Amino acid sequence: MNGPESDDVLYGHLPPSNRKTAGAPPDTSPALRANRYRDAWCGQVLGDRVDSEARVAGWVHRRRDHGGLIFIDLRDRTGLVQLVFHPDSSGDAFELAHGLRAEDVLTAAGTVVRRSAETVNPELPTGEVELKVAGAELLAGAETPPFQIEGFSGEAGEDARLRHRYLDLRREPMRQALVLRHRVTAAMREFLDGEGFLDVETPVLTRSTPEGARDFLVPSRLQRGSFYALPQSPQLFKQLLMVAGFERYYQVARCFRDESTRADRQAEFTQLDIEMSFVGVDDVIEVNERLLAHVFERAGGPAIELPMQRLSYDEAMDRFGTDRPDLRFGLELVDLGDALRGTEFKVFRSVLESGGAVRGLNAGRREMPRSELDGLISRAQELGAKGLVWAFREGEGWRSPTAKFLSDEELGDLNRRLGAEEGDLLLLVADQRRVTDAILGQLRVDLAERFGLIPGDEHRLAWIVDWPLMEWNADERRWDSLHHPFTAPVGEFDPDNPGEARALAYDVVWNGQELGGGSIRINRADVQQAVFGALGIDAEQAEARFGFLLEALRYGAPPHGGIAYGIDRVVQRLCGAETIRDVIAFPKTASGFDLLTGAPAPVEEVQLKDLGISVHQRRLAGH
Q: Which of 116, 522, 523, 565 lies 20 to 30 A from 552 at CA?
């Protein structure tokens, strides 16, 4: 990714009317002419302005008093410029400079002069020049911030940063992240506009529909007892736009899901939403590969080789235990059931006889003390395993507490299937297939991080295709959609065998993180009703929840499909942030709390009365 000195990073956020060419520094004089505060951005006071007059405005980034001279680094969102105050030529401004503190807001005017050779700062684009101040005005004073803006070294925790987010956003990494976010969304719009897509807004206050997570509900004052829901996605509306004949739609949409947050998930998030008519899977993928290549080129991401790799869902699960595999390293999973069909080891035999699986991976030649091996067992149990078998290959057998329960023939076959060589660490899990995949899939990533197996400079993007349409939810004893209930099946759908149906669905994965997913949609009312029925949504429920969609499908719906990308995740990955909170201007905490505004919070009783709502506080034990 381009560094902070890149023109695209510094100026990519300015209006197109101020650009000479795409990505080039703007001519700011028309934009800033006749402005009493500034006629130049701090980051644009460059060598070509030597001996000219300039006025700048911004925040005091750093102050240095060198006896007879005072130096101020002034910061705005384009960068820094050094101001120099002379006791003879700066007049009253020199006395003002004596009292300036970090984060004071200042405007200053003077002459741009070239620095002496020994004082040039090659780390700054403006490092060859400085502004010799003739006059200055303090526009607003600043109290001492709760954490350092300049020279921030992580001494403040995330809670403090979120509580004072307006200060945190002044820091260079945060500024760069939001500038990059702008460049990403601008590139998305640029590409889609050029491909004939229309930007159409869809409602934020809508009806509650099941899309995989809990809805945020909004009570209606005019229709007491009824509720709007905030959209989990614009899914149904974009399908209706296809029925309406708009054919190519996109939207940078705000979406809301009342679910637990994590490093790459927030309760409210932004997605690029796309839908196309008269398309199949290959058509959607082809356009989106070019979209990703365009966005990465504009945003300084890795080059994408087209066409991108495709893996079937089954292959991804077999080899990596997850539908979002990181393809930058090996440690692939192996099915070991066939080698253990006649085993006398009761743990393996009982799992296999109950329809489960024994799967394993070869972690390579390792030396680990027993305490670390016990740690692996604890990690597997934390992930949901009943246990974990570890072993080191020694000769033709194993060094492992489990070795005594297995025959020499079984050990030899297991070594062969796992490709084990002398000293290799082998890890096995026996459980239902869904559990073995989840445990080993995560241990695979844990081990790769521990042993430094992930190349930091390599990027692997891939499509995961050919998904099952549904999966069995054993806890609820029902079928669930793997994507959503509007995903089209491959061929004719047999409601008596929903588990056999495949889906016209696809996800795009980058280095083990899902960036986006989509599908071809059902465009026939009878098929949609049959899928609803298989999911346990009877005709009456379907009509109550989705009657408007079913009706629309009866009026001539074209074949259509689309995709949605998590913009927060795309930007997080591009700038290497640990969490999407670092690429969102005003995020929530992991518990969904807004430390800046104090939301969620109680409301006035009169507001609840208007809505016909009463709140019953239940006192919890110990609180």
A: 565
